[in-house]
Amino acid sequence: QGTRRSAAGAEPAAQPPGSSTTKVPESIPIQQLKAITPACSGVITNRFSPAFTIDKRADGVQMVADGPCPVITDPRIVPLGWDDAQAMLDLAQLPQHGPFTLEALRLGRFWGIRLDGRLVAMAGERLAVPGMTEISGVCTHPDCRGQGLGRLMSAYVAGEITTRGEQPFLLAWTTNKVAIDLYASLGFRLRRTVEVAIVRVV
């Protein structure tokens, strides 16, 4: 299991008109990020290359599990690792999936379902703070949607997190009503709305 990172949020700050790339020092304290990063929520560390750009900014919701999640047993679900990296990336880059990079494999565990040797569904863990772990990377191949695989993978990871005595939480775009309704049916409730920024080093 990879090293976990803590989450830190940055408060909204003004951005120069027309600016898409912000120059920052190579090393910057986390508490100073709010002065240079406009309305950014997500994974923040204290090391950056000389410049980064915000690829996307959108409204989202943070949801948390209201109580313990049941442990799911399904023989189709198998652990995923670095040997599965390309298949995971290919699946995550299909339309309608959220942001995903292979750095996620360093943060937590991932599981998936293969059909005829092809990875068709996956989900895993990303951010961890004391007592809580995020469910992330929930993906289903378009050919297999409508079969409940996204629901199954979400429930499986929630159960794995619960077995450690932690509370699962997750993020979803506000426009993704299908996902929000799915998570609500699994016992997740809205905790707060957030503004999410996808930041890329350039």
| Helix-strand category | alpha+beta
Gross morphology is globular
* Number of alpha- plus pi-helical segments: 3
In helices, the fraction of residues equals 10-25%
What is the H/E order? EEEHEEEHEHE
CA radius of gyration is: 17 Å
Stretches where pLDDT is under 50 for at least 5 consecutive residues are 1-49
Question: What does this protein structure show overall?
Answer:
The protein is α+β, with helices and mostly antiparallel strands and 202 residues long. The protein is 16% helix and 35% strand. It has three helices and eight strands; from the N terminus they run E-E-E-H-E-E-E-H-E-H-E. The protein has helices at residues 85-92, 149-163, 177-185; strands at residues 21-23, 51-65, 77-80, 110-115, 118-129, 132-140, 167-173, 188-201. Strands 1, 2, 3, 4, 5, 6, 7 and 8 form an eight-stranded mixed β-sheet that branches. Residues 1-49 have low confidence and may be disordered.
